[in-house]
Amino acid sequence: MLKAVLFDFNGVVINDEWLHEKLLIEVLLDENLRVTPEEMQQFTPGRTDRAALIDACNLRERVLTAAALDGMIQRKALAYEREINKMESLPIYDGVIESIETLRNAGCKLGIVSGALRSEITLVLERSGLTDAFYFIVAADDVIAGKPEPEGYLLGIKLMQEMFPELELTLENFLAIEDSFPGIRAAKAAGIGVVGVAHRYPFHMMQRTASWAVDSLSDLELSRLIPSLAEIIEPDDASSKPLEEMAE
Q1: Which of 7, 65, 132, 245 has a Cα at 20 to 30 A from 97?
Q2: pLDDT digits (tens, 9 = 90+) for 190-240
Q3: Are residues 104 and 142 in the same domain?
Q4: Among candidates 49, 56, 38, which has minimal Cα distance to 10?
Q5: Distance CA 132, CA 110 (A)
Q6: Is residue 24 located within the same domain as residue 103?
Q7: d(CA 173, CA 108)
Q8: Inter-residue contact 151 to 53 (CB < 8 Å)
Q9: Running DSSP on this structure, what letter comes out for residue 180?
Q10: Could you list the residue range(s) of the whole structural domain that residue 23 is in?
Q11: How many structural domains is the chain composed of?
Q12: Under a CB-based contact definition with an 8 Å cutoff, are residues 215 and 233 in contact?
């Protein structure tokens, strides 16, 4: 039975991956490094800014000191904050808030496991009124090896088990929600099931790599994962794609 859900953030909760890529390109340009949007898209999905910047620099055969790299990450974070604060409304994906509310109403515990910086995540949660929806955040600041390594998910599982010992959580009680291949690999390597949301990549590609695939979170049949949800979700809210058809 599903008892805990670990959400990826960028590309799952908020549609802002384009903004991260744009800002990373700009900080690289400040270092006289020109990287095209197409090249940057190879490095960013599901990964930390640090990993993306290192790979972009390697592509141009540029070696940066640790201090220079830290400075680039800090400048990008400040630019992200400015851009988010300019937005009247944030591009939260359709179905996210409703899915979060449904899971919480069923007693499911929610956490975030993301490659983004903690400051960026908390800013979006505060602006979108979602701060209280999640019990913890595992961010890029908290791990040494980002996705596709499982370190972030293993930490998220450990935190959830420590916070709710009465639930006796096992790996079978967890589900991750991801939109990228590194994120899906990380969740699987941690030993938990993962839903692939086709926000960035086509449905059929998510279906081949994730435990289940959906076009959006509003398509996820939560009542099939949590029996108690059958009394909460109206029939009209059920997905048109049964989970059996989504499974690999």
Answers
A1: 245
A2: 999 999 999 999 999 999 999 999 999 888 876 666 654 433 333 333 333
A3: yes
A4: 49
A5: 10
A6: no
A7: 10
A8: no
A9: S
A10: 17-86
A11: 2
A12: no
